[in-house]
Description:
By secondary structure, this protein is of the alpha+beta class. The chain has 4 helices and 9 strands; from the N terminus they run E-H-E-E-H-E-E-H-E-H-E-E-E. It has helices spanning 11-24, 54-66, 98-111, 139-147, and strands at residues 2-8, 31-33, 40-48, 71-82, 87-94, 126-132, 152-158, 160-167, 174-182. It has a 5-stranded antiparallel beta sheet. The protein has a 4-stranded antiparallel beta sheet with strand order 3-1-8-9.
Amino acid sequence: MRAFIAISIPDEVKTRMTAAAQRLAPLAIDVKWRNKDQFHLTLAFLGEVSPAILPHVTAAADRVCSAFPAFVCRASGYGFFGTKRNPRTLWAGVEPLPELEALHANLWKDLKKFGYENDETDFSPHITLGRCRESARNHPVVEAMDEDQTSDFGEWEVTRVTLYESRPTPRGPIYRSLSHAALAASVDAS
């Protein structure tokens, strides 16, 4: 099964992202927009995982998360991967907090013991809004995103991470929660 570890996004933030994608959609060509149920902040994409290794991945996430206090994330602004002329992925930004970056790094450090390697050179926290077809020229949508850098999608307290299974379908992936790993304490408890 395909699996990844991510931070889930609250409904009110997802609603604002959905509205933003709907505003951008008329300017875009050949973009497969994510729906509300597909928004998340990926910390570790594992790819194909044997069911036999899942308990080890779950234990690694539990170990790492139990050492981190809860923290607040904020999603705002837009970005893209690829070029301005041919973006591959359109996304909403997430403030790159030290706590978020440390959680990401420590998850990968622990997962490395099980043969997983982080292929990213830099961690760019983001929430994917849509994926562009390779040949699509989407300069107008990137310009619209550049002009709307003040978009604030909201903030939320991160109290756990989730291990998800990703099942591909013709309408896009369907995500199923496999387990949760709680962070040490909530922000209010400090």
